[in-house]
C-alpha cells in the first residue's frame, strides 16, 4: 500500500479537507520528507501556472498522484446532475480539462460533490438519469486517456446523493458504467453499517481510499480502530493509496506527522 496526503494547488478555503494548502516547494518537500508516496490534488483550473508548477514539483520530489479532485467546481455551481443542460455541459467541459491534466499526472479523477443533489420535486431516478448521462460523456473523454473515474460516497450532511459505499456499489452495478469507488472511512463511519464489511464487499471496485479517523484527522487522532482497517486492507491485497484527505488540525504539521507515524508503524507491523 502507498500513502498520500491532500494538497490543493490553490489557497484552500477554511473547512476544506486539505492538509497542505498550495503546492509550494516548501509544502511538497515537507510531504516527501515525511515519507509519503504521493498526493491527492485539489484542482480548479488545470491550465493555471500553479497547477502546472505542482506537477513539476511533485515529479522533482518523486511523489505520485493518486486522485485529482474537481470539488472546487461544485463551489462554482457546476454539477453533473444539474437540471440545467447548460450547467451540466459546462461541468463536463471543465472536468474534461481536468481529466486531460490528470492523464499527465498519472492519476485518477474523483466525482464527489460535483455530482450534485436530488431536488425535492423529483425522483432519485430522474437525478440518476442526468448524472449517468454526464458520467457516460466523461468516460468517452477519460477512457482513451487511460484515466479511471471514481465515485466518492459523501455523507448526508454534505450531499443527498450516493451517501454510502453500499449505495455507490448498487449505483455502479445498475448504471452499467465502467466506474470505480473511492472509499472514505470518515464518510463510511457516518453512513455505512460496517466499515470493514463494506470494504470487503466492494473491494473489487475500490481503487482509492481516503483513510481517516472519526474526526477527519489522521489515523490514531480519533476513536476508530484504524489499525484494524489497515490490517484488513493488507490482507485483502490492496495496492492503492491510503490518503489523508484530512483537516489541518491542530496544525498541518502535527496531523501529517501523526499520519506518517501511524503508517510507518503499520507497515512494520504487517511486514
Q: Distance between the terminal alpha carbons, to the nearest Å?
A: 11 Å
Specify the biggest β-sheet.
8 strands, parallel, barrel
Low-confidence stretches: none
**For the residues shown, what is the average pLDDT?**
97
**CATH-defined fold name:** TIM Barrel
Helical proportion?
40-55%
Number of domains: 1
Count the E strands.
9
| CATH architecture term | Alpha-Beta Barrel
Structural class of the helix and strand makeup? alpha/beta
Q: What is the name of the CATH superfamily?
A: Divalent-metal-dependent TIM barrel enzymes
Strand content: 15-25%
H/E element order: EEHEHEHHEHEHEHHEHEH
Number of continuous helical runs: 10
The level-1 CATH class? Alpha Beta
Strand arrangement in the largest pleated sheet? 1-3-4-5-6-7-8-9
Q: How does the overall form come out from the CA principal axes?
A: globular
Q: What Rg, in angstroms, do the CA atoms define?
A: 17 Å
Kindly describe this structure.
The chain is of the alpha/beta class and 271 residues long. The chain has one domain: TIM Barrel. The protein has ten helices and nine strands. The protein has helices spanning 25-33, 49-60, 72-75, 85-105, 124-145, 165-175, 185-191, 195-201, 226-236, 252-270, and strands at 2-8, 20-21, 38-42, 64-69, 108-111, 149-151, 180-184, 206-210, 241-244. β6 (149-151), α6 and β7 (180-184) form a beta-alpha-beta unit. α4 packs parallel to α5 (124-145) and α8 packs parallel to α9 (226-236). The longest helix is centred in the middle third of the chain and has 22 residues, at 124-145.
Amino acid at each position: 500500500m502507498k500513502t498520500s496526503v491532500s494538497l490543493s494547488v490553490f489557497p484552500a478555503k477554511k473547512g476544506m479537507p486539505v492538509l497542505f494548502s498550495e503546492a509550494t516547494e516548501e509544502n511538497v518537500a515537507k510531504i516527501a520528507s515525511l515519507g509519503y508516496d504521493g498526493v491527492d490534488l485539489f484542482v480548479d483550473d488545470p491550465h493555471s501556472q500553479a497547477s502546472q508548477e505542482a506537477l513539476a514539483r511533485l515529479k522533482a520530489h518523486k511523489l505520485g498522484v493518486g486522485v485529482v479532485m474537481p470539488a472546487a467546481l461544485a463551489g462554482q455551481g457546476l454539477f453533473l446532475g444539474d437540471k440545467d443542460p447548460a450547467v451540466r455541459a459546462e461541468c463536463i467541459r471543465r472536468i474534461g480539462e481536468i481529466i486531460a491534466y490528470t492523464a499527465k499526472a498519472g492519476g485518477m479523477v474523483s466525482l464527489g460533490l460535483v455530482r450534485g443533489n436530488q431536488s425535492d420535486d423529483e425522483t432519485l431516478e430522474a437525478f440518476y438519469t442526468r448524472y449517468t448521462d454526464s458520467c457516460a460523456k466523461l468516460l468517452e473523454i477519460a477512457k482513451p486517456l487511460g484515466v479511471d473515474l471514481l465515485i466518492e460516497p459523501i455523507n448526508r450532511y454534505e450531499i443527498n446523493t450516493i451517501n454510502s459505499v453500499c449505495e455507490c456499489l448498487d449505483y455502479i452495478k445498475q448504471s452499467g458504467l465502467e466506474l470505480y469507488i473511492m472509499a472514505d472511512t470518515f464518510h463510511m463511519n457516518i453512513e455505512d453499517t460496517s466499515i470493514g464489511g463494506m470494504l470487503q464487499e466492494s473491494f473489487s471496485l475500490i481503487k482509492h481510499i481516503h483513510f481517516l479517523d472519526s474526526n477527519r484527522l489522521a489515523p490514531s487522532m480519533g476513536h476508530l480502530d484504524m489499525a484494524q482497517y489497515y490490517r484488513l486492507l493488507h490482507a485483502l491485497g490492496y495496492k492503492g493509496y491510503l490518503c489523508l484527505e484530512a483537516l489541518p488540525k491542530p496544525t498541518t504539521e502535527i496531523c501529517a506527522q501523526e499520519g506518517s507515524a501511524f503508517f510507518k508503524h503499520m507497515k512494520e507491523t504487517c511486514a
